[in-house]
Amino acid sequence: MQTNIEKIDDSQFKELGQIAFDIIENALEKAFEEQDLDDDVERQGSSVLNIKFPNQTVIVVNLQTPLHELWIAAKEGGFHYRWSGTAKEPKWLDTRSQEEFFTALSRFVTNQGGVSLTFKA
Asked: Does CATH place domain 10-111 in 3.30.920.10?
């Protein structure tokens, strides 16, 4: 377990959050093309990312800058991932289970949208 957590300010958090959004968008767009799926990824401003599936469900990922957390709203529930990394090794861990953000998101997308993929930071 990582004990070395680098303190970041709001500006750094926003930058790291945008990198996370880019990772999500790129992985989903590639999966959508390779699997010929009719899914959609849409940003609302700079702090919300919607992942829309053909089954009319949505996963919402948003940045909570004051808390330095990424939040996910999925069919399985709402989850909060607190900044727990360094600039070189960004990481967000669930505030309850300590599950890593991209691991959980991979599961949510697979279960909810039927898109089998693994996000990698």
From this structure: yes
